[in-house]
Amino acid sequence: MYNKVTPQIREELSKIVGRENLITDPERMLDYSHDEFSLREIGHMPDVVVKPQNTEEVSSVLKLASREHIPVTPRGGATGLCGGCVPARGGIVLSLEKMNRVIEVDQDNQMAVAEAGVNLGDFIKSVEEAGLSFPPHPGEESAMIGGLIATNAGGSRAVKYGVIRNYIRGLEIVMPRGQIIHLGGKLMKSSTGYNLLQLFIGSEGTLGVVTRAVIQLLPSFVLTRSLVIPFADLDSAIETVPLLIKRKILPMAVEFVEQDVLAIAEAFLKKRWPCREGKTHLLIILDAPSEEEMDRLCQVVAEVCQEKGAIDIFIAETQKRQEEVLEIRSKIYEAIKAQTIEILDIAVPRAEIARHVKKVQEVSRKYGIWLPTFGHAADGNVHTHIMKARLEEGRMIPLEEKEWRPKFEKVREELYEDCRERGGVVSGEHGIGLVKKPYLSYVLDKTQIDLMRGIKKVFDPDNILNPGKIFD
Ligand SMILES: Cc1cc2nc3c(=O)[nH]c(=O)nc-3n(C[C@H](O)[C@H](O)[C@H](O)COP(=O)(O)OP(=O)(O)OC[C@H]3O[C@@H](n4cnc5c(N)ncnc54)[C@H](O)[C@@H]3O)c2cc1C
Predict the structure, then answer these.
(1) Beta bridge partners of residue 50, listed in sequence order
(2) What is the pTM of this model?
C-alpha cells in the first residue's frame, strides 16, 4: 500500500520544483494519465505532476517520495505504446520535459551530452547542425532521450545501425532513494565490473530515473537512396532479405508493407505511393559513401529482387521523392489510428517473419478482424495492428465494441503463442509496460523473471519507482 500526496507533501514538492512546475488541477493532469496506447481504461490519474528543472530537484523529489512511501512514475514524451508512463498506482508523475538541453556536441569524441527531456527531433537537429549523425531513428520524434533509453527503442535502421542501447556510453541516474550516480562516460570501452549502465537501458523507469546521457554519434550520411519494390506475394518479398545479405548488401532499412494498407494511407494522406502493383512491397533504404558505390548497391539489389520475381523497381533518388515515400510509410499509423486498438511489436528470427505473418492472416480470417501487419523485414520486428474494424473491398469497416472486445484478447493470445513457438519475444522495441505484462511469461521462464524481481528489490527496496510495470 502506498501513501497519498497530502496538501503538506504538495507544499514540500512545490518548494523543491517551484509552484509553476507543479500541476494539481485534475483537468490538466488528465494529459499525464496515459500514453499513446489507445484504450484509456488502462490510464490512471496521478495525485500530482512535478516538472523538475535539474538533477538535484529530481533527487529531492525522490528522497521525499521514498521517505513518504509515495510511488513515482518517470515520464518522457508519453509516446509509449504499452502504458509504461501511466501512474498505475497514483502518486507523483515526474515529467522530465523541462530538462531539455543538449549540453554539448563533442566533435573530438563524436559524442553528445543531453538531458533526459530533449526530444528526438531536437536532438537530431542539434547533431546534424554539428555535421554528425545519430543513426537509430525510432518513428516518433516527440519521444524524449530518457524515454528512448528506458525502452531501449529501436526503429527501422536497427539492422545496420543497431538500437538505442548501442549508442549510450554514459548515464546520469537518480536512484529511487535520491542518490545520484554516474555510469560510463565518453568511453568506447569498459570492462570495469558489472555493466550497470546497460541494465538501466530498457528498464522502463523501474530501476532509476535517467537525467542525462552521453550518446555516441557517427559521421553524417553521404548519400541515401530509397527503393520501392512490389512483389506478387509476401514470401517472395521476405525471402529477398537473406539473399541481399548473402550478396553482402546490408541496407540501412528494409520495411515490408502490404498493398491494402498503402492504399488506405494514400487515401488518408492524399499522397501517391510510387506504385500500385503487387501485394507486398519492400521499401529498401541504402546508404553509401559515393555515387559509384550507390549505383553498384542498387544494381545488386535490383538483380536479387528480380531473381525473386519483383514486379518492378522504383528508385527514389532526389531528396524530395525520398521524403514523399518515407512520409507515407511513417504516417500509415495516422491513417489507421482511429480504428487501432493496439500495435504489437513481436520480434521473431528474420527467417520466421513470413510464417508469422501468415499466422496473423489466419487469425485475422478466424476472428473477422483486420490485422494489418508491416514492419522491419530485416530485423524480424513485426508491427501487427489489432483493429476494431474489418477490411472489405479495401475499406475499413468499423466493428461495434461488443463485437471486437471479446476477440481482442484471443487474437493477442494466439499471436503471442505463435511468437513463442518461433523463438520470438513479445516486445522488440516498445517494452512491456502495463499492457504486455500478462505475456512476459510466454517467452521468459520463471527463473529469469525471479532474477529480474531480485534486481528490482536491490535497486528499489521500497518499490516506489514505476511500480506495477514489466512484472508484479
Ligand atoms: C507513431 C509512433 C511511432 C513509433 N515508432 C517507434 C519506433 O520506430 N521504434 C520504437 O522503439 N518505438 C516507437 N514508438 C514507441 C515510442 O515512441 C518509444 O517507446 C519511445 O522510446 C518512448 O519514449 P517517450 O519519451 O515517449 O517515453 P514515455 O512514453 O514517456 O515513457 C516510456 C517508458 O520510459 C520511462 N521513462 C521515460 N522517461 C524516463 C526517464 N527519464 N528515466 C527513466 N524512465 C523513463 C517511463 O516510465 C515508461 O516506462 C512509436 C510510437 C509512436 C506513437
Answers:
(1) 22, 94
(2) 0.97
